[in-house]
Amino acid sequence: MSKTAFIWLWAYCSSRRTGAISWLIPAYFVQKGEWEAAQSPNERTKGSYLLENYMVLADQPCLNLLNGDSEILKGISVIQTPGHTAHHQAVLLESDGEKAVFLGDLIPTASHIPLPYIMGYDLFPLTTLETKRRLLELAYEEHWLLIFQHDPNIRMGYLKQVQNRFMLEEVCPDG
Fold this sequence. Notes:
Elements: E1 8-14, E2 21-31, H1 32-39, H2 51-54, E3 63-66, E4 70-73, E5 76-80, E6 89-95, E7 98-102, H3 125-141, E8 145-147, E9 156-162, E10 165-170
Parallel strand pairs: 2-3, 7-8
Antiparallel strand pairs: 1-2, 4-5, 5-6, 6-7, 8-9, 9-10
């Protein structure tokens, strides 16, 4: 399954005596439709949906199949962002009135911010266009930090508008 189909959240328990992490339990949160699509890949998706990468989770209690936008924990949600795949999701983080979003394959790099700049391997490019339009407007209005996990040069930034177009104001994690 593609990297962006899952969110890996690690719940841990601290030892009361030492304060050290004593165990980890992985939890996987996947849109049910994405999981089902992965079960029957077509010529276009079979290179991403490799059964050996995810079928081990099929009967495990750590697999959580979701139907739509969902709050995972307080401040951690997934939002549906269809286009790359029909059930693609992004991760939205909220804390102290601020928001950050991991965009996954919807907007994989800062160069993909312009609405018509869509990857050739998106399954539903017109859906990607409308999802980007909606998400970018909301991200701009609410001043979300955009995080690009696939961009080799720009990790994150905030949107600004220049001549009615969105552009990125990069934030350097090192200050």
